Amino acid sequence: VQLQASGGGLVQAGDSLRVSCVDSGRTFSAYGMGWFRQAPGKEREFVAAIIWSNGATAYADSVKGRFTISRDSARNTVSLQMNSLKPEDTAVYYCAAALTPKSVITRHYDYWGQGTLVTVSS
Fold this sequence. Notes:
Strand content: over 45%
Distance between the termini: 37 Å
Structural class: mainly beta
Largest sheet: 7 strands, mixed
Radius of gyration: 13 Å
């Protein structure tokens, strides 16, 4: 399993950015995919999740209405479109794969990719 995240960068407050995650290993079928983030000095937190089969989504309250998670089955890719970015969105963003519904519900994902840094300047 090789989850590879990309697309991070430095943007200004109010800008948009899209981060993506691909399973380059193609060695398993995930039940769901999620994005988490970790800001400097803070705990890692849940951002968004999507169920691979039906596209059902869930979001943290802090990003609802601004972020959109989506999947591309043909490319085995999950993306996170981030709009109206705020300085408090600055963090390393991680993608993760869940093999079971329990993993999604408990947010204890099974596989993790390396992070991609998103920095939002004020």
